[in-house]
C-alpha cells in the first residue's frame, strides 16, 4: 500500500495502529474526492468547500495539539506539539491565502463560514478525548490527521493532477518536509505505546480508528458539500 508498512520507521505499536485502519485508508484512496483531485474531475465547488472547512478544522486541530502539548510528560514532546500547533495555523493560512482568491472566496466569506456537521463532530471528539483522557489517548486521536494526510499526499504526489490548484495542495502534504514532521510524531507514539497496558493500548487503538473514520468523513463532507439538514 505504502512504504509506511515496511517497518522503516514504525515499531510494533504504531505498525499495529496503521494495520488496524487498512480498510479505512483503502476507502479514502478510493473516494471520488481523492480520485477527482488526480484526474481533475473534482468539482471546483467541492474543493472550495473543503478548503474553507479545512481552515475551520485547523484552528480546532491547533487547539487539540496545544492540549496534547500541555499533557506531555517530557519537555521535548511539549515543544514538538506546541510547535506543530503553531505551524498548523501558519501553513494553512499561507496555503489558503493563495487558494481562496483563485477559488473565488473572500477572506470575509471564509471567516463567516460555520463548521459542517462532520467537521464539528470530528473536532469535538478530538478535544473531548484529549481533555478527558490520557496523554497516550490524545496522541492516538491526533495521529491519523498527520499520518493519513502524509500517506494520501504521497500517493497523490505520485499520481499528480492536471489542475494546478489541486497540485499545489497535494505538494504541501506529500512533501518530505511534512514527512519529517509525521515521522517525529510516530516516533513519539511508539515510545509512548511501549509502556502502556493492554487495556490502554486498546483505548488508543479505538481513538486512532475513530478519528481515521472521521478523516474519511471529512473527505466525503467536502465532496458532498455537507450542510446541516435543519
Spell out the key features of this protein.
Heme Oxygenase, Chain A; globular; mainly alpha; 11 helices; single chain; 230 residues
Describe the structure.
The chain has eleven helices and no strands. The radius of gyration is 17 Å and the shape is globular. The model is unreliable at 1-7 (pLDDT under 50). It has helices spanning 12-19, 22-30, 32-39, 44-71, 75-102, 107-112, 117-132, 135-159, 164-174, 176-193, 198-224. With 230 residues, it is mostly helical. The chain has a single domain, classed as Heme Oxygenase, Chain A (Up-down Bundle).
Radius of gyration: 17 Å
- Continuous helix count: 11
What pattern of helices and strands is seen along the backbone?
Answer: HHHHHHHHHHH
The pLDDT mean sits at 91
- CATH fold-type name: Heme Oxygenase, Chain A
Name of the CATH homologous superfamily: Heme oxygenase-like
Give the total of domains.
1
How helical, in percent, are the residues? over 70%
CATH class: Mainly Alpha
> Which CATH-level-2 architecture?
Up-down Bundle
Low-pLDDT residue spans: 1-7
The total count of strands amounts to 0
So what's the overall shape?
A: globular
User: Strand-residue fraction?
Assistant: under 5%
Q: Which secondary-structure class do the elements indicate? A: mainly alpha
- Strand count, sense and closure of the main sheet? none
Distance between the termini: 40 Å
Care to give the gist of this entry?
The chain has 230 residues and is an all-alpha fold.
Break the fold down into its secondary structure elements and pairings.
Layout: H1 12-19, H2 22-30, H3 32-39, H4 44-71, H5 75-102, H6 107-112, H7 117-132, H8 135-159, H9 164-174, H10 176-193, H11 198-224
Amino acid at each position: 500500500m505504502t512504504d509506511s508498512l515496511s517497518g522503516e520507521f514504525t515499531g510494533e505499536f504504531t505498525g499495529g495502529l496503521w494495520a488496524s485502519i487498512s480498510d479505512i485508508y483503502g476507502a479514502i484512496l478510493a473516494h471520488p474526492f481523492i480520485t477527482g483531485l488526480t484526474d481533475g474531475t473534482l468539482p471546483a465547488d467541492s474543493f472550495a468547500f473543503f478548503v474553507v472547512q479545512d481552515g475551520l478544522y485547523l484552528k480546532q486541530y491547533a487547539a487539540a495539539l496545544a492540549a496534547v502539548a500541555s499533557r506531555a510528560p517530557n519537555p521535548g514532546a511539549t515543544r514538538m506539539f506546541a510547535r506543530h500547533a503553531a505551524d498548523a495555523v501558519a501553513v494553512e493560512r499561507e496555503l489558503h491565502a493563495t487558494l481562496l482568491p483563485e477559488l473565488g472566496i473572500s477572506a470575509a466569506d471564509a471567516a463567516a463560514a460555520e463548521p459542517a456537521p462532520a467537521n464539528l463532530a470530528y473536532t469535538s471528539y478530538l478535544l473531548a478525548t484529549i481533555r478527558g483522557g490520557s496523554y497516550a489517548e490524545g496522541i492516538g486521536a491526533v495521529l491519523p490527521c498527520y499520518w493519513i494526510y502524509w500517506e494520501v499526499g504521497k500517493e497523490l504526489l505520485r499520481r499528480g493532477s492536471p489542475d494546478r490548484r489541486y497540485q499545489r495542495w497535494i505538494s504541501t502534504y506529500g512533501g518530505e518536509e511534512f514527512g519529517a514532521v509525521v515521522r517525529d510524531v510516530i516516533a513519539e507514539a511508539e515510545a509512548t505505546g511501549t509502556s502502556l497496558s493492554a487495556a490502554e493500548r486498546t483505548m488508543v487503538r479505538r481513538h486512532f480508528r475513530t478519528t481515521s473514520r472521521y478523516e474519511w468523513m471529512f473527505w466525503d463532507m467536502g465532496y458532498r458539500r455537507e450542510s446541516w439538514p435543519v
